[in-house]
């Protein structure tokens, strides 16, 4: 009696050409990158009766050099070097490591190319002082003349800054071989394509191949590489997710295009922390680092005008002062407006409800506008108390006490809850000249004295109002 084995046909799978996400059946929209019409059928090859793919046998290759004890490995090659931009060095963890590949992502027009062009010029000057090779800036989005005009505008012209307009991977690697640079900047990785790989520039296979080749060159030559990356409509990095896993550092450059402030955050860093934030000021003459961004977020008249209250937020580990402004005006319509900018709308609505129910400050017949100064974002719970005081100050027409800063989360019962980083926030407030600080009562016993700052612990919104608005 003979038996026959029926081999099952491979099940078709569908892969997104933009991000690489796979699905067992066709769908109109990719669930990963939310793009439409990008799923294409790709059947998996089978290598045995069970349908499992056959894996190639990897031959044993003698190592180029034997493994050494860890104590004999030199750590000098992994020392970070300054890029010449202190705020970027802060985010990277002291500078860029030779052989590291850094991905800088951000929305169009946020200033990615301007920042890296300035970094390239400063690094070229530093490399010349160390008697090292030039810096190579490869642009695939603009012509060399356009980049030259931007360099003139931001004063980023340096004789050791080499510029190449290239969109083909082989030509880019040829420039690297010929120039032997000390740093490589690629703007952007989605515009470079390899003739050895199918697909258009920016596709899954192309981005993977280009990134892999550049990473191999970086490790082989100990060459630091800075890559510019595009983002999708949802704010994620365009291309396959493997790109973020291949590179050593992933940073996001963000900011409102209508404001001057730009923030640089590290979401992945193999050589440093991921909770540091760099602040930049984007102006007509280029982009500059802000070691002290308080001038953008605090107005000179904050202690004389009703409806203002200062607070200190934490961007990573960095304390950033923020001024909250509120305006309460009689409404002419049946439904009052609630408009916010820079603060979380839901938390403002909760603060208004707490004021109405707990301290009898009724804004149900008034329009309420709450905003921050300079385009800053105050979305963490520690800013609740400042928002609450600013609204009451505007409603009563009484300015808050001069030199006051408010820190704390406000609960639905009106209590002022403890928050993280109070000690660091107080130190920043003292540096800026604030002499009084409202802090949550819980945990205040553990705070160390801050010279020049009178700490006022409060447990309820009513206590905070009495301390901040003594006239009322």
TrEMBL record:
The question of whether Cell cycle is a record keyword is answered with: no
The short sequence motif called RadA KNRFG motif sits at 268-272
Residues reported to bind ATP: 106-113
Q: Where is this region: Lon-protease-like?
A: 367-472
Q: Does the keyword RNA-binding apply?
A: no
* Bias-annotated ranges (Low complexity): 43-55
Q: Keywords assigned by UniProt?
A: ATP-binding, DNA damage, DNA repair, DNA-binding, Hydrolase, Metal-binding, Nucleotide-binding, Stress response, Zinc, Zinc-finger
Q: What does this protein do?
A: DNA-dependent ATPase involved in processing of recombination intermediates, plays a role in repairing DNA breaks. Stimulates the branch migration of RecA-mediated strand transfer reactions, allowing the 3' invading strand to extend heteroduplex DNA faster. Binds ssDNA in the presence of ADP but not other nucleotides, has ATPase activity that is stimulated by ssDNA and various branched DNA structures, but inhibited by SSB. Does not have RecA's homology-searching function. Plays a role in repairing double-strand DNA breaks, probably involving stabilizing or processing branched DNA or blocked replication forks.
Q: What is known of its domains?
A: The middle region has homology to RecA with ATPase motifs including the RadA KNRFG motif, while the C-terminus is homologous to Lon protease.
What is this protein identified as?
A: DNA repair protein RadA
Recorded name of the encoding gene: radA
């Amino acid at each position: 009696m003979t038996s026959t084995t029926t081999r099952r046909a491979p099940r078709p799978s569908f892969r997104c050409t933009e991000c690489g996400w796979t699905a067992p059946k066709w769908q109109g929209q990719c669930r990963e990158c939310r793009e439409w019409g990008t799923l294409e059928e790709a059947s998996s090859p089978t290598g045995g009766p069970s349908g499992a793919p056959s894996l190639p046998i990897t031959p044993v290759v003698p190592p180029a050099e034997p493994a050494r004890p860890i104590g004999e490995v030199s750590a000098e090659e992994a020392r970070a070097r300054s890029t010449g931009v202190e705020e970027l060095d802060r985010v990277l963890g002291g500078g860029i490591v030779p052989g590291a590949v850094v991905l800088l992502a951000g929305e169009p027009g946020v200033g990615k190319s301007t920042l890296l062009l300035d970094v390239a010029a400063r690094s070229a000057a530093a490399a010349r002082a160390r008697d090292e090779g030039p810096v190579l800036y490869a642009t695939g989005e603009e012509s060399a003349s356009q980049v030259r005009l931007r360099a003139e505008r931001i004063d980023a012209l340096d004789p050791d800054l080499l510029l190449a307009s290239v969109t083909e991977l082989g030509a880019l690697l040829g420039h690297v071989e010929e120039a032997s640079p000390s740093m490589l900047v690629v703007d952007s990785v989605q515009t470079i394509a390899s003739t050895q790989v199918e697909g258009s520039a920016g596709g899954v296979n192309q981005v993977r191949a280009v990134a892999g080749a550049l990473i191999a060159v970086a490790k082989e030559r100990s060459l630091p590489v800075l890559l510019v990356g595009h983002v999708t409509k949802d704010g994620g990095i365009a291309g396959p997710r493997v790109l973020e896993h291949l590179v050593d550092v992933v940073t996001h450059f963000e900011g409102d295009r209508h404001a001057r402030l730009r923030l640089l955050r590290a979401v992945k860093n193999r050589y440093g922390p991921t909770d540091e934030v760099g602040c930049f000021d984007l102006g007509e003459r280029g982009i500059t680092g802000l070691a002290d961004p308080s001038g953008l977020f605090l107005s000179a008249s904050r202690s004389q005008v009703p409806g203002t209250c200062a607070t200190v937020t934490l961007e990573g580990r960095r304390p950033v002062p923020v001024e909250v402004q509120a305006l309460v005006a009689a409404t002419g319509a049946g439904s009052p407006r609630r408009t916010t900018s820079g603060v979380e709308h839901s938390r403002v609505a909760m603060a208004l409800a707490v004021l109405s129910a707990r301290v009898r400050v009724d804004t149900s017949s008034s329009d309420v506008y709450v905003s921050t100064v300079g385009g800053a974002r105050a979305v963490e719970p520690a800013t609740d108390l400042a928002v609450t005081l600013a609204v009451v100050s505007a409603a009563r027409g009484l300015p808050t006490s001069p030199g006051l800063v408010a820190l704390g989360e406000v609960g639905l019962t009106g209590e002022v809850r403890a928050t993280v980083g109070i000690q660091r926030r107080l130190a920043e407030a003292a540096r800026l000249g604030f002499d009084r600080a409202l802090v949550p009562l819980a945990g205040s016993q553990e705070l160390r004295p801050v010279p020049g700052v009178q700490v006022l612990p409060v447990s309820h919104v009513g206590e905070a109002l009495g301390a901040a608005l003594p006239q009322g």
